[in-house]
Amino acid sequence: MNNIVQVKDKKFGLYISEETIKQRVKEVAEQIDADLKDKHPLFLVILNGSFVFAADLLRDISFPCEITFVRMSSYQGTCTTGQVKQLIGLNEDIEGRTVVVVEDIIESGYTMQEMLRILDEKHPEKVYITSLFVKPGCLKVPIHIDYRCFDIEDDFIVGYGLDYNQEGRNLPSIYQVIE
Q1: Rounded-to-integer distance, Cα 75 and Cα 111, Å
Q2: Which side of the chain, N or C, has fewer Cβ within a 10 Å radius?
């Protein structure tokens, strides 16, 4: 495992190992298993960054469930733009359903706030949020996150699905930018 990687014009240092991530994702999946096993939820994965997390999470879910994908974006380079753009919408009927939103990282909370607004218009029974990473110090809006793997500082990270200008998603561990 490399402790330092280059992605485009930036160097990144190892932050969280693949083994640590997978163990924590398994623990969160076990929590979801215990809480939602009788609900037959729809897992709503926010692309692109959440695809690796969602794959590992769902492999550890033991009950019947469904999965679908939406794509929302508020990023450009290493900074959030603060403006949410819905790129691919939700096509499934979620009225009366239990929905589990799967997100890679929650920073300002604006993207999740917009997601919850869109979902609320479709009248689900209950919406749960699970996120691989949360940056509590960056939250600009109050968001209740039901299941989280890691709380982190305001560092820019790549790997395990997260990117820097569309590269670095394939790294199995998490790396933080080195100034």
Answers
A1: 10
A2: C
